[in-house]
Design goal:
- The complex is a heterodimer of chains A (about 425) and B (about 240).
- Chain A has about 425 residues and is mainly α.
- Chain A is built from 17 helices and 6 strands.
- Chain A has 2 domains: about 280 residues, no CATH class; about 120 residues, 3-Layer(aba) Sandwich (abc type-2 transporter like fold).
- Chain B has about 240 residues and is of the alpha/beta class.
- Chain B has 9 helices and 10 strands.
- The chains are: A mainly alpha (about 425), B alpha/beta (about 240).
Chain lengths: ~425, ~240
């Protein structure tokens, strides 16, 4: 077995057998996210059940025909309790003692107004007792039922007016005379899909990639820092450095081992996260728009370029983490030190998840573009849109950065700094004293 | 051929001078002890010989190879056991030995022979199948010593090999060093602040204090030179005179 393979396998064994890594990085996302998703699903189902079975109260000062037909319509859909009271205040007092969270109040003259062509106004009261979604949703359900009744009443009224006037027309077209059909043009293709629907799908799909890259890089940093710090903590580094094997081979083995575990962690995270999204978002109507025909979505060449982009991003993050972790004595201080690296990864990921870089102020754009991880995220969006030139540019930028960082890491590994460097509070105070 | 020739070694860490012109010679197949109190410069000397750090000035040759100019050649013939060294706790003893042996040979039969040697030196038997995080301090030290000697290096560098061990464990480790160094024809450079241990173990010793070798010779020669009953007394006399 070659030395590189031997070190890589040792790294994988060490990291996988460390319960903190195995549970925290590989197994926890697989367990935690489905549990969270299921918990949210259960609570959503109870809310839905509460909405479906909700009852509501009605207090009316109007006894006209419109009120009575509307109440009949409402009663066929839900359980309606009609409140008997002498005034609205008395009715509201009774309503607050009831289990219903919604009450319709129909004022006097409602039916007369509606039948004479004046808008009939009613009030829907929501009794917010427990501050939960079910309470507001049941108010919306009542509003929707009233709107449906309102629509059909207006259609019937238009129809009777048309008959009286001896005209033939579609009552629905008279009520809503203009219909809009939204279409989108993407890369010269005209699609019968609204821009909103396209943006919603693109956002849903392209957000996942930056999240995945961010998570994978953060895992990789953690792995690499742990890998070096474990050698120092277990006092095995000195022995390793006197073995007949090149220092670059040791560095390579550590990078490779960390990448394997980081990828496993990222896959586990994404499986768990997908399950979570599937469970937590099961109540929403997800768009099923297919954009493949419009040249949007990742094509095979895009996958290859994206793979290269993710690989160079990972290697640069690992090399940075290793270079920093060398200065730590143990796993805890290594993770604190490498925690600094998470900032330039999270900031571009979050900003670019919700906005486009061109929308930002110029100075801010330059600052973001100087951070290599910004390019990883830009590349993932560009690969999705088929802009391979941007992906290639990102790969080139990150590769140059990676080579510089690897060179620094290799330098640190080939000198005695790997043995003698120590990160302590005293080092820091010495550093500041020297600056002064 | 001399195994180690160290000439006028000095090493500074910032303002601290760990070595100030240390010189000594170790002959092939001998067990050579570097003795002195804590902070005398023993570990720094051993780290320079084992290619881990470079001297600020001076020179060390191991079997004719300069440790600074030819570190790869030196690493191929030496084996270093650092003070308080650890082993990979999530590997089994056997996996650890196999991992280490693979650096010295890619021939399976040869690495198997190394592991057999290690089994014999460590005396750990079936416990080698267990994960190292279940080992006692003494068991770990025996495993590490076995690792350092199993490939029959031309030079074994052992830094405080019995540090922190109880009487029984220290005895076993000392016996193993003495027995296998002779049996395998390995040159050993050992450091210790336990002068009685070194007197028992070493053919020749160098007394080191404040980064300088103040005397060297066989234990008998040093005792005679300072009219002392043991090396501890000889060291005290030497530091007063030196």
């Amino acid at each position: 077995m070659g030395s590189l393979t031997s070190i890589t396998l040792k790294e994988i064994k060490e990291l996988v057998r460390d319960p903190k890594i195995l549970f925290g990085v590989v197994l926890m996302p697989l367990l935690l996210f489905p549990v969270m998703g299921s918990a949210i699903q259960v609570s959503q189902q109870s809310v839905e059940r509460a909405i479906v079975t909700s009852t509501f109260a009605v207090y009316t000062d109007d006894s006209g025909v419109v009120t009575s037909t509307m109440l009949d319509y409402l009663k066929t859909n839900r359980t309606v309790s009609v409140i008997q009271a002498n005034s609205l205040n008395q009715a509201l007092a009774q309503f607050q003692g009831m289990t219903s969270s919604t009450m319709i109040y129909i004022p006097s003259g409602f039916s007369e107004n509606v039948t004479t062509g004046v808008k009939g106004k009613m009030i829907i009261y929501g009794n917010i007792k427990n501050m939960n979604i079910a309470e507001t949703q049941s108010t919306n359900v009542v509003g929707t039922l009233v709107n449906i009744y309102s629509y059909y009443y207006s259609i019937a009224r238009i129809d009777s007016l048309l008959q009286a006037a001896g005209e033939v027309a579609n009552p629905d077209a008279i009520r809503t005379p203009i219909a809009i059909d939204y279409q989108s043009i993407i890369k010269g293709n005209v699609l019968n899909i609204s821009p909103d629907a396209i943006i919603s799908v693109v956002m849903n799909q392209s957000i996942m990639l930056p999240i995945m890259i961010m998570v994978m890089v953060m895992f990789a940093i953690q792995m690499a820092a742990t890998s070096i710090a474990l050698e120092k903590e277990q006092k095995t580094l000195e022995t390793l450095m006197t073995l007949p094997v090149g220092r670059l081979t040791i560095l390579g083995g550590k990078l490779a081992g960390s990448i394997v575990i980081a990828v496993a962690g990222a896959i586990s995270y994404m499986i768990g996260f997908s399950y979570y999204m599937g469970s937590a978002m099961s109540f929403t109507q997800l768009s099923t728009v297919n954009l493949g025909g419009a040249g949007i979505g990742i094509q095979p060449v895009g996958y290859v370029l994206l793979g290269i982009n993710i690989f160079v991003t990972l290697v640069s993050a690992l090399a940075m983490a290793i270079s920093l972790a060398v200065f730590a004595d143990n796993v805890r201080s290594a993770q604190s030190l490498t925690g600094i690296l998470i900032v330039p990864i999270i900031i571009p990921a979050i900003i670019l998840m919700f906005s486009d870089i061109d929308m930002l102020p110029q100075t801010f754009q330059w600052i973001l573009l100087a951070i290599p991880y910004t390019h990883s995220i830009l590349a993932s969006k560009a690969a999705f849109m088929g802009d391979y030139w941007i992906v290639l540019r990102s790969i080139a930028y990150i590769s140059v950065f990676t080579i510089v960082v690897l060179y620094i890491a290799a330098k640190i590994f080939s000198t005695e700094r790997i043995i003698t460097a120590r990160f302590t509070s005293r080092n820091l105070s010495d550093l500041f004293k020297k600056r002064r | 051929m001399d195994a180690i020739v160290a000439s006028e070694l000095s090493k500074s860490f910032g303002n601290i001078e760990a070595l100030r012109g240390t010189s000594f010679v170790v002959k092939e197949n001998e067990i050579f002890g570097l003795i002195g109190p804590n902070g005398a410069g023993k570990t720094t000397t051993l780290r320079i010989v084992s290619t881990l750090i470079s001297p600020t000035s001076g020179k060390v040759e191991v079997f004719g190879h300069d440790v600074v100019k030819e570190p790869d050649k030196v690493r191929g013939i030496l084996s270093y056991l650092p003070e308080e060294a650890g082993a990979y706790q999530y590997l089994s003893g056997m996996e650890y030995l196999r991992f280490m042996a693979d650096f010295y040979s890619h021939d399976r039969a040869e690495t198997d022979r190394m592991i057999e040697n290690a089994k014999e030196i460590s005396g750990l038997g079936d416990r080698l199948r267990d994960r190292i995080n279940g080992y006692s301090k003494g068991m770990k030290r025996r495993l590490l010593l076995a690792r350092a000697l199993m490939m029959k290096p031309k030079l074994a560098i052992l830094d405080e090999p019995t540090s922190g061990l109880d009487v029984m464990q220290a005895y076993h480790v000392r016996e193993s060093i003495k027995e296998y160094a002779d049996k395998m024809g390995v040159t050993v450079l050992v450091s210790s602040h336990n002068m009685l241990e070194v007197e028992y173990l070493c053919h020749r010793v160098a007394l080191i204090n404040e980064g300088v070798v103040i005397a060297d010779g066989t234990p008998a020669e040093l005792k005679a030179r300072y009219n002392a009953i043991n090396l501890e007394q000889a060291f005290m006399e030497a530091t007063q005179l030196g």
